[in-house]
Amino acid sequence: MTIERGQIYFVNLDPVQGREQSGNRPVLVLSTNTINQKPLVVTVVVGTKGTNFKRDYPTNVRVPPSDSGLPMETVFLCFQIRSLDQNRFPTDPAGQISSQKMQEIEVTVRYCLGL
After folding, report:
1. How far apart are CA 59 and CA 2, in angstroms?
2. Separation between Cα atoms, residue 42 and residue 9, nearest integer Å
3. pLDDT in tens, 9-19
4. What CATH topology corresponds to 7-113?
């Protein structure tokens, strides 16, 4: 299985603690393909249904289905970055982020991390 930057997977994030996102969630692969091809962890940004957020925040990126290939609008929570073992990922991605939205996510992640 090859996991690539910009792909979106539905991954079970349990177990969690506190305010971490839980359950089966869309995650966007953020780590580079060089890292993703090694037996290491994959760094992702966690997403949630767009209906869960009535307004936009500077720490989130709202992505319509046309920019993700997912069946619903998704909000990627750029302050919710996780590194996951490759065994958590299903064989096939559920979608692929557009290059324009990927750039927006990169900018927002840098904002969240103060980079």
Report:
1. 29
2. 12
3. 999 998 878 77
4. SH3 type barrels. (2.30.30)
